[in-house]
Amino acid sequence: MKKILIVNADYYKDISKKLVLNSKKKLINNRVKTSIINVPGIYEIPIAIRKNIKKFDGFIALGCVIKGQTPHFDLICSSTFNSILNLSITFNKPISNGIITAYNKKQALQRCKNTTSKKPNKASEAADAVISILFNGPKKI
Q: pTM (2 decimals)?
């Protein structure tokens, strides 16, 4: 059985709770063993993944960053997303990015609503991505 670690940045607890529930639901429906680690913010996600890289088959990064009045948003998002990508490539492990980047809280809440087949949310999309990589190897032509 494949093991996935959800690394959840719970700075915006109301948003991250919805993200975790939707991601976990998708993983359970696909019979994937799931564990969760909470970290304070998205900047801590890469180190949590790195510390657990050998214990899991794949990872899902969840959280939310809302743009403020300073360049902090751009710097945090850029460095975190690059670190996640580098970990995935370096260790040849799927790490999907379900981190919401939004201009305001209303926009973020829209992106973490309960999922439907027509309008998935960021977390269910991230779960689908990691499941796809783990279970659908290269196709033979």
A: 0.91
